[in-house]
């Protein structure tokens, strides 16, 4: 069971980790500043297992991988949103942060108790007693996710593993 | 048969591909900068493979140069050490990554270049498929020279008519952002064409391509023409053969007549929040910034200098000018533009990203308001989260610096 942190549409990577705080690769420091300006209560309040629920186009803007790393290091187990920006989507898959495309996620409210079942492709809202479906990952992306990220995928299969 | 994007990928992989297919394709070059290289190095080390081709991995120092903090200086040091250990020799410190890659001939029509920076879509201005990825994707390219791509659907953007004096490619681009919203082209390639684009020089086309990511696009392409070839021929580092669309099928077509367009301003905090300059003129400004990969080139300097010639910056505001590259800086000095800026009371910075990401050389404090020629006005982008950013053309920026508030540049041109 996890707490939902509800965010707005078009959350950009500057908001997830502002430019002033990403001149480092130190994971702990990135986590400390994750969402610090748009949700000042987030860095101290987030608990391992929590879930971020974004609006549409989550993760737009800069290509900084610091953004999904900061979210992952905070202990967030998944980001749920109706749609994701392209580079953020790749970055998250590459480092093994699950992203769930869920058109109905707008029904989730701040603080709701929710649970995600990645294998089953569902998000359960315990507070509202509702279950929402998640769009399945495209097959190839699913294979990268299954491998645990792009580095593991390449080490195990190489590009020949893509079959493209 | 296909769009420019489909044709570029088809040639890369040696068979006809269609939008929606996943392909693994070799790139010409891979670029990362001082902000995205450190994580790429970590991922590259985890991969445990050698560098694919030391000649084709380009590192640029631009996001924090000259180093504003010890931490930044240490990151530069670490990157230099990594380069030495791995036989990498291409370290460019001449300006903003996108500008120098184009100037130095790494970008050619029909090419495929990936950069660890979202504005790598700028390369589309030369008919090269340029796209941004994150550090780990780029680390895989360091090692293999390849990446996977979903061949994108294409949105054809036709800009008809001719821009009025005082109205520029930047204004057309902002008008487009209002039409498409910030995710209107997500996962797609934009392909720009039409009379207005035919009439634009390479620098203006780079402004269009640069901002395609602000509408979510993966690439912002312009079909190569005489101007493209004239620009590229003397600089190209590799032999090249341009690629053109062949009987393309577009997922969407958008037409915009730019003839009646007035100067546009994007208001805080979303790029698509665009109005005509007359709606916001008079808004007081603490800072004006002219520069970046969007509008820091020689023509931008010329336009701004034209407006500022013999004028002074309003005492209630401050004007910062940062040429996009050393070449732009040198030419702007030779042509007297820098002199004009300094005499007007501007601060002229060394080439680089400068205040665009709110780290140094012009950070805003709480509640301050700035007008900038950059590409995004996200909350807190240039400093404090309560500061506000307006986006406009270099002419609008220069006119506003003189007025001390947002001003219509047409009175000066
Ligand atoms: S000038 Fe701004 S937008 Fe362009 S590469 Fe630098 S930080 Fe990014």
Query: What's the main sheet of chain B like?
Result: 5 strands, parallel
Residue share in β-strands of chain A? 15-25%
Question: What count of structural domains of chain B?
Answer: 2
Neighbour order of strands in the largest sheet of chain B: 4-3-2-5-6
What is the alpha-carbon Rg of chain A in Å? Answer: 15 Å
N-to-C span of chain B? 44 Å
- What is the H/E string of chain A? EHHHEHEHEEEEHH
| Rg of chain B (C-alpha, Å) | 20 Å
CATH architecture heading of chain A: Alpha-Beta Barrel
Give the biggest beta sheet of chain A. Answer: 7 strands, mixed
Classified by CATH, the class of chain A is Alpha Beta
Total of helices of chain B:
15
Share of residues in strands of chain B: 15-25%
Bound molecules: iron/sulfur cluster
Q: Approximately how much helix is present in the residues of chain A?
A: 25-40%
Quaternary structure type? heterodimer
What is the CATH C level class of the largest domain in chain B, in words? Alpha Beta
Quote the CATH topology of chain A: Aconitase, domain 4
How many structurally independent domains of chain A? 1
H/I helix tally of chain A: 7
> What spatial form of chain A do the alpha-carbon principal axes imply?
globular
């Amino acid at each position: 069971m996890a707490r939902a942190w509800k965010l707005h549409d078009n959350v950009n990577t500057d908001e997830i980790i502002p430019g002033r705080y990403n001149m480092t690769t130190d994971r702990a420091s990135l986590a400390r500043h994750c969402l610090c300006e748009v949700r000042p209560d987030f860095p101290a309040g987030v608990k391992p297992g929590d879930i971020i629920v974004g609006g549409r186009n989550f993760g737009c803007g800069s290509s900084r991988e610091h953004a999904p790393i900061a979210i992952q290091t905070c202990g967030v187990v998944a980001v749920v949103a109706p749609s994701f920006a392209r580079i953020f989507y790749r970055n998250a898959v590459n480092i093994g942060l699950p992203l769930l495309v869920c058109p109905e996620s707008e029904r989730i409210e701040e603080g709701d108790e929710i649970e995600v079942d990645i294998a089953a492709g569902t998000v359960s809202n315990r507070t509202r007693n509702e279950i929402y479906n998640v769009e399945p990952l495209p097959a190839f992306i699913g294979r990268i996710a299954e491998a645990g990220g792009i580095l593991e995928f390449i080490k195990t299969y190489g590009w020949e593993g893509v079959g493209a | 048969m296909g769009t420019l994007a489909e044709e570029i990928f088809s040639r890369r992989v040696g068979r006809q591909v269609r939008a929606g297919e996943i392909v693994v394709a070799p790139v010409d070059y891979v670029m990362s900068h001082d902000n995205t290289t450190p994580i790429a190095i970590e991922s590259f080390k985890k991969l445990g493979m050698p560098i694919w081709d030391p000649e084709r991995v380009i590192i640029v120092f631009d996001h924090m140069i000259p180093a504003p903090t010890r931490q930044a200086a240490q990151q530069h040091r670490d990157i230099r050490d990594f380069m030495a250990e791995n036989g990498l020799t291409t370290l460019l410190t001449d300006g903003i990554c996108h500008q120098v890659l184009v100037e130095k001939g790494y970008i050619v029509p029909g090419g495929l270049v990936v950069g660890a920076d979202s504005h790598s879509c700028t390369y589309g201005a030369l008919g090269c498929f340029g796209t941004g990825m994150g550090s780990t994707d780029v680390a895989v390219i360091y090692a293999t020279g390849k990446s996977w791509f979903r061949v994108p659907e294409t949105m054809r953007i036709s800009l008809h008519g001719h821009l009025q004096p005082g109205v520029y490619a930047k204004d057309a681009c902002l008008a487009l952002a209002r039409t498409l919203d910030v995710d209107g082209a997500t996962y797609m390639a934009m392909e720009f064409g039409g009379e207005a684009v035919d009439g634009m020089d390479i620098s203006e086309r780079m402004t269009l391509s640069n901002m395609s990511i602000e509408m979510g696009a993966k690439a912002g392409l312009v079909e190569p023409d005489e101007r493209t070839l004239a620009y590229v021929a003397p600089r190209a580092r590799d032999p090249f053969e341009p690629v053109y669309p062949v009987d393309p099928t577009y997922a969407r077509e958008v037409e915009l007549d730019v003839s009646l367009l007035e100067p546009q301003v994007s208001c805080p905090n979303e790029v698509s929040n665009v109005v005509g300059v007359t709606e916001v003129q008079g808004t007081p400004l603490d800072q004006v910034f002219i520069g970046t990969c969007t509008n820091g080139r020689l023509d931008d300097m010329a336009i701004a200098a034209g407006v500022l010639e013999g004028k002074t910056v309003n005492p209630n505001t401050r004007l910062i000018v940062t040429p996009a590259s050393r070449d732009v800086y040198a030419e702007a000095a030779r042509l007297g533009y820098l002199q004009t800026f300094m005499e007007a009371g501007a601060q002229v910075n060394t080439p680089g990203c400068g205040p665009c990401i709110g780290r140094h050389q012009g950070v805003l404090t709480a509640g301050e308001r700035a007008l900038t020629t950059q590409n995004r006005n996200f909350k807190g982008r240039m400093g404090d989260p309560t500061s506000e950013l307006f986006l406009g053309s270099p002419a609008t920026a220069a006119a506003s610096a003189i007025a001390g508030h947002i001003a219509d540049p047409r009175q000066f041109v």
